[in-house]
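Notes from the 1:1 (GR / supervisor)

We went over the backlog. Supervisor wanted to see one worked example end to end before approving the batch request, so GR pasted a single chain during the call. The sequence is below; no edits were made to it. Supervisor asked that the structure be written out right there so they could see what the output format looks like.
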Amino acid sequence: MFERILVALDNPESNEPLITAAIALAKTTNARLLLLHVLPSENQFDYAQTNDTDHTRENDLKWQRCQESDLEDLRSLYKSANAVGVSADIAQPLGDPGQKICELAHQWGADLIVMGRRDAIDTHQTTLGSVSRYVAANSSCSTVIIKNPFSEDSVTHASTTSFATSSATSFATSFATQ
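Structure output shown during the call:
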């Protein structure tokens, strides 16, 4: 049974389906959550490298605001989980997202990783994003990938959230009865 579920979060706009599914699963199995958002290291942060001192200071301020904003989002999700009776921890390490998710899942003793994916659409197929593919292939535990949590369309977003909740509950119930 699931006792520890790591929830790999990406950005605030896409977190709702993931946290909804994870909370439903945690409530069904009485699991603890680790709400995780991996920040890219500063050299991976998407700013142009320049020797301009003003530009570097501006980038440092943007980096600091990003860290603070993401940590505040994690704290808000932590409070939401606790408000419905789900125990949770938060973590915001720096590094390569795929590697950090796998590393922390192993260190924390996760039974399951819940994460989203970004669709990369070719002419004939949809493939998993590089982080979700890496985690599914390299994690020390099972991984549930919630499809399309990054939709801009509110109708799709709402139906994805509803589907994620019912799927997580069905998934957990099937394990609980075994």
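Supervisor's comment: Helices lie at 15-29, 53-83, 97-108, 130-138, 154-176.
Batch request approved.
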